[in-house]
Every structure is written in C-alpha cells, then in structure tokens.
Amino acid sequence: MAAGEQRRTEIVAAAQQAIARQGFEGLRVRDVAALVGINIATLHYHFPTKEALVTGVVQGIVGALDGVLPSGPERDPATVLAEHLTHILTRFEADRDEFVVLNELYARAGRDPELHVTLLANDVAWADWLRAVFEAGRAREQFRADLDPDAAAALVIGFLKSLLVQLDMTPQRSRAAADEILRAVKA
Amino acid sequence: MAAGEQRRTEIVAAAQQAIARQGFEGLRVRDVAALVGINIATLHYHFPTKEALVTGVVQGIVGALDGVLPSGPERDPATVLAEHLTHILTRFEADRDEFVVLNELYARAGRDPELHVTLLANDVAWADWLRAVFEAGRAREQFRADLDPDAAAALVIGFLKSLLVQLDMTPQRSRAAADEILRAVKA
Amino acid sequence: MAAGEQRRTEIVAAAQQAIARQGFEGLRVRDVAALVGINIATLHYHFPTKEALVTGVVQGIVGALDGVLPSGPERDPATVLAEHLTHILTRFEADRDEFVVLNELYARAGRDPELHVTLLANDVAWADWLRAVFEAGRAREQFRADLDPDAAAALVIGFLKSLLVQLDMTPQRSRAAADEILRAVKA
Amino acid sequence: MAAGEQRRTEIVAAAQQAIARQGFEGLRVRDVAALVGINIATLHYHFPTKEALVTGVVQGIVGALDGVLPSGPERDPATVLAEHLTHILTRFEADRDEFVVLNELYARAGRDPELHVTLLANDVAWADWLRAVFEAGRAREQFRADLDPDAAAALVIGFLKSLLVQLDMTPQRSRAAADEILRAVKA
DNA sequence: TATGAATGAGAATTCATTCAT
DNA sequence: GATGAATGAATTCTCATTCAT
After folding, report:
1. Is the Cβ pair A25, B21 closer than 8 Å?
2. What's the gap in Å between the CA of B103 and the closest CA on chain A?
C-alpha cells in the first residue's frame, strides 16, 4: 500500500474509533488527528473536509459489510441461517465498535439522503438474501409452510440490528434468541 | 399549568422536533429558541444549560413510554401480544419523530451512563412484561411449548426497536412481520 | 442612534481605517475588533461574515460620495468647475484614507461584479454631471468651442482619480494641475 | 535562457496572471504553482518565499515599463505626445492584465516603502520626460504659452493611470480624451 | 530539480452562556 | 420573564513553508 493510502486508512480507523466513542455528535477532527498522532493540517491534507473524512468512514464501514452474505446457493437453508446468525453475533461480540458506528450511520441516514441511499442498498441486499434462504427452506420443507419469507427476513434483520440498542442484551440472551429463531421457523 | 411550566413544555417540544430533524449532532439551542419564537437568553432562563434542556427532552420521552405496557394480567396472552404489536406499529406510523428521538437517545446511552440507566430500566420493564405474556401464553398452551419466553421477548423488542433503522420498512411489511410473530409463537 | 446601530457604525469606521492601512489584502476581522475594542465574536454578532463587513464599508464609502455633485444648474460653469476641483482636492488632502479605501474598492471592482455595478453607477453620474458643466460652459462661450465635453469629463475624472497613484503628487502640483485644467478649457 | 531561468519566467508570468485575476488579496502560491503545472514545493525551490515571488513580479512589470519613453529629443513635440498617448492606449487595450497588476502595485505602494521607492522612480522619470516634451513644444510655439509643463504632465499621467478605474471607459472615449489633450495644449 | 507529505501559525466562524436593562 | 449585546472557548479550515526522498 502506498504511504498516502496507508495514512488515509489509519485516519479512517481513528475516525471510526472516535465515532464509536463519542458519536458523530462528539466527532472532532483534532481528536482524530491526535489519535493518529499527526498534525491537524496533515489530516486536512488527506481529507480536505470533515465531510470527506466521514465519507471515508462510511466507505470503510460499508465496504466491511460486503462479503457478509455467503453466496453458496445450494447449501442447506437451516444451516445457512444458523451460521449467518452465529456469524453476526460473533462479530458483534468481537467488534462492538463497528456496530456502534453503523448505528450512528443509520441514525444519520434519516437526515442524509446520500447516506440513506447507500445504506438502503445494503438493507435491500440483505433482505433479499434472507428471503431467498427462507424460500429455499420452505421449498425443502425444512421451514414452516405458513412462513412468510419476507416478514421473517424483516424480523431477523430487525433483531440483529437491534442488538446494540437492547441495553439488557447479553451474549447468552442473543444466542438464545438466535436459537429461538431457528425453532420458530422450523417445520 | 403555570405560565412558566407551559413555556418549558413548549421549549421541550421544540427541542424534540429539532433533535428529530437534525439529531443531537445538529442540536443548537438557538435553533430551539427560534422554533419557539423566543430569545436565546429567554431559553436559558428556563433551561440554564443545554444539558438541562436535553434532560428535559429525555424526561419527556421516557414519560411518554410509561403506560405503554397494559397491566391487566388476566387477559388472553395472544390478544395482548397482538394488541401490543399493533399499538407500537400504529404509534410508529403516527409519530415517527418520537422514535427518531428515542433512537438518538439509545445511541447516546452508549456514552452517557446516566441515560443508560434510565433507558435500561425501561428496557428491563418491557422485557419483563413481554416475558410474562409469553409465559402466560405457554401456560395456557396458546404458544409453543418449546418457546423460550425470554428469547422471544428479545426478538419482539428487537424487531420493534429496529423499525426506524430498517430503511426498506413499510407499513405493510411491518404488519406482515407482526403477523409472522403471532404465527411463529402459536402452538 | 440605537446602540446597535452606533456599534455597527463604529465597526465600519474601524474597518475603513484597517483597509486604508493594510488594504483588503491585510484586512483581518480580529484587527477590526481590536480597533473597536470589542470581542471578535461581538463583531460577528453585528456582521455575521467578513463579507458583510466589507459590504458595510462599501455602503459607507458610496454613501459618502453622494452629495459631492452640487445640483445648482444655473450657476456659472467655470466657477462650478473650479469649485468642484477645489472641493475634491481639499477633501483628498483632508482625508486621504477615504481615497485609499476607494482606490482599493476600484481595484476590487474588477473581480467583484456587484461592486462593479455600484461603482459604475457613481462613475456614470459623475461623468454626466461634468459633461453637463462643460456643455453649459461651451454654450455660454466660457469654454473653448472645440471642447469635447465627454472627453474633457474623462480627463478631469481621470486626473482626480489618479491623485493617489501619482506618487510624486503634492498639494502644490495638484493645485497647479487644477489651474491648468481651467486654463485649458477656457475659450 | 537556462532551464531554471525559463521556469522562473513561467512562474512569474503565472503569478502576474493570478494577481490580475484575483488581486494581491487573492494571490495564493499554490494557485500559481497549479497554473504553471508544478508542485508547490518546486515553486518554493525557485522562489523561496511568497515575498520573493512578488518581487519577481514587480521586477517583471517595472522592467516592462522601461523603454516606454522614447529618447529621441529632436523630434516634433506634438507628434511625440500624440504617439505617446496612442502607444499607451494601444497597450492598455492589448494587455489589460498588465495594467491591472500595475494598479495593484500602486495600491500596495502605499503600504510598502520599498515598492513605493521603485514606482516613484518610474513616476518621476515619466513626469520628467513629459515635462520636457511640453517645454519643447512651448519653445517651438506648438503649445500654448501659458501651458504649465509640470501641471500638464500631471494631468496626462493622471488620465493614463486612471484608465482602469474609470469603469465607464471605452476605447472610443479614451481616444477622444487623447484628442482633447492634443487640442487643449495646442497654441 | 521535483514531489508527496507534513506542519505551525493563523483565519473566519460557531456556540453555549452571561449580563445589563 | 424577556431581550439585545457581549464574550471565551472552541472548531473547521487555510496557507506559506519545510523536509525526506
């Protein structure tokens, strides 16, 4: 990686950390610069405006979301679902910061049309993928015949998105909830 | 209501509106004052600091959350659950702003211990109530025997909390999801 | 004058002084605030932006230009011309700063269309007035028959505008030049 | 011309252009570098400071002023004057930028003693030359006997210097004014 | 010569808060 | 209760200049 690119990556990482700690509300470019250990003017050399820095963070986060949805279409739906839930929960437990930033981004999307478009695309892709899993599972009679794939996708996504804002959530409860999902869809 | 109390209520309402529009990130006391149509110094007369104003907003929102959970314990659990879901969805559709502010509050709770305590208390009460409903339903064999009441509560709460951040959500989809919940728990 | 208006007048005067000393190039709002003896934020309370302050200065200067052209149409053209020259020269000697700022404004007009329009209107009015004086003088046979009123106006205005940028100009030379004008137009 | 000298010339030309467009007020070394198509550090290699660059521009402009005053003393004064006026007007119409920069320099001279000295020398030489022309013309009885050579020189220089700041000036008017000068001095 | 990266010293502007009236 | 004016402490951003390569 070129030196400049490397530096920009560092800065974005620091900005993510700052947002996770203080929210967008408390994001200060000087804090980000201090976190990286560079002069504030140097930060502005790489990201001309605070807005550009935030865009960098958004791209970083959204980029990290890619690849979350496995594409192997022929696998067992129940297993795919179980693995997906486990994957997200594990990730949540491992890197809570990422979810905090994502949560801030969703809050911001309500006032930032561009961000809304970006995140909406992600949401749609996620819902599409989950729906396909539920349809496949229903077709194989693994899942309930009266399962509404679209509604089920909304429920699963909703639960996973809410992890951060269920203040009484624990790893145990989230695992139990994931198990409950698996039972609830089973034929 | 005394004149002063009346004015304070106006200011809090304006602050909620401002937060719903711009987030905490964009909350400016001068904007709130302008929204009410008073001088900024007058606002500070009623709320000495911005912090006090935010506290006022939190109290307003949390106060509005009370009474959401009906206490009649002897009623039919399936009906209670259905009504609860409908109640929240209706409320969401009617006053989205309230949910936007609440969402901002949850984001803030991660960095504000005092707010965390306040909201956690609400979450716990909500989860307790829902768990009781599920337990009652299971006892009456309305709900699945293998239903985990605590996990189911987490799922329901998660879905309802996520309404705002499911960018592709529509009234139709949310109603369908509520129906799916009712089917999923049924014995 | 209201307190606020008074303060704004003070600030504009200080800004004029600052521009006369340092040019637009060296104009710093903090210096203007210091000159008035107020906090820089107070200056911004009265003039939200530097641009607004400059506009205030322009209005002040242009306002001061009004009334320079006497309107008595029936007076003796040669006398009117002589008095006009004397008036401007006296004013130049008395308040050089005003001319320095005006000169800066003309330099700026080349890049600022709005300012160009404002100053052009002044120039046109001045030229119109002088032309009328020359025409009247020619009609009375005070001035040369082959005098081109428009060209003569351009020459007089040019000389008066150039006072500041003729670095070797002295009160004596400028008075002598004024006398030369009077001789040159005489029949 | 050595490669380095060539590059310095390019840079000075770009700086002149930048000053003509934006004034000293808006002169940015990075803009000049961009105009030349080089890195800002490369510009600083050739001109260590912004001040040095401005000095380069001043030298370029002042250098271009040399040779404006023809030295043939024995020629016909009326013709010399006419040609001088035409020469300057033609030059003004052909390269307005040069006059814009010169105008900026004169504005600056009021605050920059060194620049004042440089430009004053030019002014004095110009006035001396014109005075000599007027004296010669008077001696030959081409010009009016009561013509004050020094005052006439001040008027002519003043008019020529004011071309840029007479916002309603046109090539036609300036030519007519030159003709008026010739008539006004004639015996 | 040339450049990408870095920086110190400002620059305008914002904002919550205060105070005299 | 209400307000215009004032302010200290940031905050983002700019800019000439430097330095390692």
Report:
1. no
2. 7
- C-alpha dihedral sign at C119, C120, C121, C124: positive
CATH pick for C67-185 out of 3.90.79.10, 1.10.357.10, 1.10.8.60, 3.30.160.160: 1.10.357.10
Nucleotides in chain F with any atom closer than 7 Å to protein CB? 1-20
Chain B residues whose beta carbon lies within 8 Å of the beta carbon of residue A109: 165, 167
Amino acid symbol at D48: P
Q: How much is the mean pLDDT over chain B?
A: 94
CATH topology of domain A3-57: Arc Repressor Mutant, subunit A (1.10.10)
C-alpha neighbours within 13 Å on the C-beta side of residue A167: 23
Which residues of chain A are in CATH 1.10.10.60 domains?
A: 3-57
The reported pLDDT for the residue numbered A70 is 80
Q: Which residue is nearest to nucleotide E2 (CA to C1')?
A: D42
pLDDT of residue C68: 81
Chains A and B touch (3+ CB pairs under 8 A): yes
Contacts of B150 in chain A (CB under 8 A): 173, 176
Distance of residue D29 Cα from the nearest chain C Cα, in angstroms: 14
pLDDT less than 50: residues of chain D = none
Cα separation, C183 vs B5, in Å, equals 82
Give the pLDDT of residue A74: 73
CB contact under 8 A, B119 and A167: yes
Q: Is the pLDDT of residue B55 over 70?
A: yes
According to CATH, the topology of domain C3-56 is: Arc Repressor Mutant, subunit A (1.10.10)
3-class SS of residue D140: coil
Q: Check: CATH 1.10.10.60 for B3-58?
A: yes
Fold designation for D3-60 = Arc Repressor Mutant, subunit A (1.10.10)
Where residue D143 falls (left for φ over 0; alpha for ψ -120 to 50; beta otherwise) is: beta
Nearest residue to B155 (alpha-carbon basis) of C45, C165, A180: A180
